[in-house]
């Protein structure tokens, strides 16, 4: 099974450093120098945060759910054979983690976070209340921008699996990305029934890439 016919023809453009900086400045316009901040993770940030943090908590975000809803043409795919990565799509709720970063680390860390998460402007950075066992925290959350051309609505599971199995990018195979996220959620005690089902099928049927 091949990806949908329009998968490789969707417009693709990396944001310029100036666009990323403008987005970052807008997200931090109400931040006070030295103030600690919380960042919400629901995908690779759970198993590869790439920053030092003061505190980590399990957290529930309401109003959005974790989904493989974003075409990846660099990190886990190519323009010719896109992969899929996680976004927070509209509706439901999502169990993830929140990290508390020391305020003094924000000026150094946030540009790197923007390079990682906002390379194509596919996400909308938002400050949203997340529920934790120790009380609510207001965290930076990267939610899916449904107006971005790389957004894709829910696919039939067989089609989604075929796309994941065949794609690979600069950070490795798309299959590995999905599996690492599933394993990290399990290790954190987070249950995601749909992702668990996808991960079990990937484990049971590890198809090779087309050129193998």
TrEMBL record:
GO terms for biological process, alphabetical: glutathione catabolic process
Cellular component, GO annotation: cytoplasm
Domain of life: Bacteria
UniProt cross-references to InterPro entries, sorted A to Z: ChaC, GGCT-like, GGCT-like_sf
Enzyme class, UniProt record, top EC level: lyase
EC code(s) of this entry: 4.3.2.7
Keyword NADP: no
Protein name: glutathione-specific gamma-glutamylcyclotransferase
